[in-house]
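User
Please review the sequence:
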Amino acid sequence: MQSPNPIIIFHLPGKSVLAADSPLLFMGLDVARFWQVSRQIIEEDEIHWITLGVIFTAALLMRFVPGERRRIRAAIGLFAFSLFLLALACVFQAAGKPGVFGAIRWAGRLIGGMAVINLASVLLFDVFLKLAHFSVPRILRDLLTAFAYIGLGLALLRQSGGSISDIITTSAVLTAVIGFSLQDSLGNIMGGLALQMERTINIGDWVKIDQNVGRVKEIRWRHTAIETRNWDTLIIPNSVLMKSQVVILGRREGLPSSHRQWVFFNVDFRYSPTDVIARVNEALQSAPIERVAAEPKIHCILYDFKDSYCQYAVRYWLTDLAVDDPTDSLVRTRIYFALKRASIPLSIPASSIFLTEESEERKELKRGREIDHRLEALKRVDLFHSMTEEELRDLAGRLLYAPFAAGEVMTRQGAEAHWLYIIIRGKAEVQVSVDGNLQKSVAILGAGQFFGEMSLMTGERRAATVVALEDVECYRLDKEAFQHILRQRPEMAEDISRVLAHRRVELDAVREGLDIEAKRIRMSAAQRDILNRIRNFFGLG
């Protein structure tokens, strides 16, 4: 006679469960008992509601807080692992091993709680506090999360019947031992916490530590990461950072972030410092330079006297500290072209010796080639078509070489400048001020074109602003140079006035739609007016 199936009673916390009369076995596991234990744990811990809450919260955070997706995915992974541990605990309980069941269940609840704390941390710090425009340092956030982990662990330990006082007593001794052995690490942690709480150094600040300059990328528990301009990353322990002298670049209370830069250059003693400074300041301040602050103004000073030259320095305030060398290069370019226009060479060290056999024949050959280039440029200017070859050659010898860097203002609307520019290389843009403020582009000038003829011939103020679009090379013809030739042949003024009047009337005809008769009448009046102004300006009587 077959014996009846035994009735097995097993215990869960606070309850006794009666197994089925004939258990369904799967690989040695009582499946009915497993499901019964699982339902009981789900009901006690409300796992179904917690799971729904985790899924819903994680989905919202993944959508609206993309910057924390890695942290959210980690929380989801922890929660999934906690569910696996709880299921494993049910397996051991169904197999009649309550001791293992209790330990695994406690671990599963702890890991699941940590996952919930992580999601709650993202929800609190990255959603609610950001909506309230309140920022919490990352290290403080991590510290609060760690305290929440500890609190959760103690709560679960107490719930399972453990003695918290025994743990605290034992941990006091362990804390002393661990604290002594990890004092450097604790110093780093406390240093990082102090940096974050005091906000002495903020993420994004540019700092100088010893000879290293870089931008603060992040402040972690153990270290601070600093990214240099060379694309290197410095890892500095927080304890070292707290003991070091740190220079925060470009920070001044109540003012925009900017850092003063120095650019040095040398000029021979033969040239007046007043003249050098004036020419360089004019070039630097005539038009904005990218990444250079408008206030305080960029300026040049006489910095020092050396053995055979004066050392000058240009000081400017850099607004983008990540781009220092390229901005220095732009400033040096302005300095170079300003000195070139003023015929002021950069100094040559006294120790340098250059030997060149410079015969009179060689000098004349070089000068002849240069005069030929200038003659070619002058012949393109219709103002001078009435001049003889000899007069043009005389005028060519009086031209001044005037280069401009890209972005420089070559002449400004409304300025008094009694000279004409002939472009020999590069492009420049003609701009007219509209309503006294807005600059409107009206023309692009290139090689062979000229501007400033009315200012040269009549003293009229500049009618437009001209800006170099790229590096531009020009010849400049001053009033004094042209006056020498005009006084020798005053009748040339009539030919020049006719050309200028024709240019003006043609522009008026396009703007106003003048017919032939109206153009003829206006041409006659314009020529008389311009001729009188030329004679008065040059004192021809």
About this structure: Residues 414 and 462 are 5 Å apart (CA to CA). Residues 98-131 form the longest helix (34 residues). The radius of gyration is 42 Å. The chain has five domains: 9-162, 187-249, 261-341, 363-478, 490-541.
